[in-house]
Write a structure and sequence with these properties.
Radius of gyration: 34 Å
Number of helices: 18
Order of helices and strands: HHHHHHHHHHHHHHHHHH
Strand content: under 5%
Largest sheet: none
């Protein structure tokens, strides 16, 4: 703000000092608000204390900045100040005031939602969110420190050095500012590499954050909407989408079986829910692509408008502004067009930093939709032409011609080779549960107890310890999936097996296979439980692996508590019997 005032020859020194003091107070309140928000996210200050400090601090900062900006804007329009221009600091102050006000308003809405119970009162940051916060702070500190160093070395003004550091670290390379000294060129080697590495880490964190939080929230909403629509369609007597979802009209739409068994009904509902989930996922991917593309287009078109108007002295046409904005967004940076006005430079820094997450999200969504489809088509064409896969050429052609996509998909989600088994209840594919050779300590201990009970001929104890051993083994398997970030989807036979383990209605024996286990144990415990219900393992913020890990862990905890109570009861019974024996012996003596 000081640079703007200095260009006004009629402003007295006292006015400059007042503006500087107000600007310093505004900065102080902004720092306090930032510190309060950071401590709240770190759970050092309670939400009820931190939120008012943050909101009030940023509102005060915004009001103080506006109190400076408006008088300066009025003074600049006086006739005696004709020919003077706004400095970059004036526009940076404008951006800061607007950002402070918008964030304070959003936090006010958040506080109101927390007061009404619509959202949590704590910021429970995940690892990726904390990482992105720290990396963003590091990037800004790195950019500003580098700008100060180069302003000193090259003799630039600090804000011009900020503009240079911005397009250098973003690998745009506009080119109207370049280091001319040997020291500046030498320092560019480590400075540019360090900044590009930090930027790459931020891009990776943004992608991870989108996958972790944003996608899940939107996907859940789409999932519920699609579930209601397709379940209503499937339960209708006039199903207009038979190729997309199975016909559930035989269940009367009330989850009550009429012509099919309970297990067959569960299987139909499972297939329906799996299809609903795939449809919702596909919807989300394409909606995300459209939204991110729209955001990118808005950034491009509106950015071009600002550059067009800010560079009117250079008589840029709108097409030339579009050309410059496009090459900048894609980090091409030919250098034939570049901003020279104060507004153009300040807006370029603000706009280009917003462009990084925008283009990152767009590329991610393109990779999840268009590129993946092109890749699948390319692999298929390669397999039937010059790059054959594991399946023989003729067999591949036969599978494409004779087996429909629906049959192949039904085989995947049910674990059965024949799709007609859905209603017949037969199971032709029996998958064995392979025991892992590397057992942890608790798993190995339960296995030893099982063998010991078998040697004693205690069948009940053998079954119990074998059940504990199976639970330990499956929990470890799920933990391996979770650690490796594998997106695992289980077929229906596997779900029958795991739900039977969770229910504990029947302790599995060592000779059981997946297809031989009853699938109604979990459902029998949950009256009215259905795969197409709003709360089922295939719907929600947890993945299938996370859901099974939680339920298997709870089942193991339940079994160990039962075993512990049984052990203590037997000990107390033994002590009581021993006391009676001793009393009887003493009386006889």
């Amino acid at each position: 703000m000081l640079w703007s005032i200095r260009q006004l020859s009629l402003c007295p020194i006292l006015t400059i000092l007042r503006v500087t003091a107000i600007n310093a107070v505004s900065l102080l309140f902004a720092l306090i608000a930032n510190l309060s928000l950071s401590l709240n996210m770190a759970r050092r200050i309670r939400f009820e204390v931190a939120q008012p400090i943050t909101i009030i601090g940023w509102y005060i900062s915004s009001v103080l900045l506006i109190a400076i900006l408006i008088p300066i804007g009025v003074i600049m329009y006086k006739p005696e100040n004709e020919g003077h221009i706004y400095a970059q600091s004036y526009f940076y102050g404008t951006f800061a005031a607007g950002i402070y006000f918008i964030i304070s308003t959003l936090l006010t809405v958040t506080a109101y939602g927390a007061y009404k119970g619509h959202c949590d009162r704590e910021f429970k940051l995940t690892t990726s969110q904390r990482t992105l916060m720290l990396q963003t702070i590091i990037l800004f500190v790195y950019l500003l420190v580098g700008a100060e160093v180069y302003a000193t070395i090259e003799g630039w003004r600090f804000l011009d050095a900020v503009y240079w550091a911005d397009y250098t670290l973003l690998t745009i390379g506009v080119g109207n500012y370049v280091p001319m000294t040997h020291l500046g060129r030498g320092l560019l080697f480590p400075y540019a590499v360090g900044g590009i590495v930090i930027l790459g880490l931020i891009i990776s964190s943004i992608r991870t954050l989108m996958l972790e939080r944003g996608r899940q929230k939107i996907a859940d909403l789409l999932m519920e909407h699609t579930r209601r629509m397709l379940v209503k369609e499937a339960a209708s007597s006039r199903n207009r989408l038979p190729g997309l979802i199975p016909d559930l009209s035989m269940t009367n739409g009330n989850l009550e079986t009429t012509d099919i068994s309970e297990r067959e009904r569960q299987k139909l509902e499972f297939i329906t829910m799996r299809r609903i989930r795939q449809v919702a996922t596909l919807q989300y991917k394409w909606i995300s692509l459209i939204v991110s593309l729209t955001m990118w287009m808005v950034m491009w078109l509106i950015g071009a408008v600002v550059f067009w108007r800010s560079e009117d002295e250079r008589t840029w046409s709108y097409f030339e502004a579009l050309y410059f904005a496009y090459t900048t967004l894609l980090t091409i940076g030919y250098g034939d067009f570049y901003p020279i006005s104060s507004l153009g430079k300040a807006f370029f820094v603000f706009w280009s930093l917003l462009a990084v997450p925008t283009i990152t999200i767009l590329i991610s969504n393109i990779g999840d939709t268009l590129i993946r489809s092109v890749r699948d088509i390319t692999i298929f064409l390669g397999e039937i032409t010059i790059l054959p896969g594991d399946e023989p050429f003729l067999d591949r052609i036969r599978s494409v011609l004779h087996i429909s996509w629906r049959d192949r998909w039904l085989q995947e989600v049910t674990g059965e080779q024949n799709a007609q088994d859905i209603l017949s209840g037969t199971e032709s594919n029996k998958k064995e549960v392979n025991a892992d050779a590397e057992r942890d300590a608790l798993e190995a201990e339960e296995h030893k107890r099982e063998e010991s009970a078998r040697e004693r001929g205690d069948i009940a104890a053998e079954n119990i310890h074998h059940y504990h051993y199976i639970l330990f083994r499956e929990i470890r398997k799920m933990m391996d999936y979770a650690r490796s970030n594998i997106t695992k989807e289980f077929d229906y036979l596997e779900w029958e097996y795991y739900l039977s383990l969770i229910s504990g209605d029947r302790k599995p024996s060592t000779s059981d296979t997946l297809s031989e286990r009853p699938g109604d144990g979990y459902q029998s415990q949950k009256k009215g439980w259905s795969w197409i219900d709003r709360k089922n393992p295939l719907v929600g913020e947890h993945s299938e692996v996370q859901w099974l890990l939680n339920e298997l862990t709870e089942a193991l905890e339940r079994e160990l508590k039962l075993a512990s109570r049984a052990y203590h009861s037997s000990e107390q019974s033994g002590e009581s019997d021993g006391g009676k024996t001793r009393a009887a012996s003493g009386g006889g003596a």
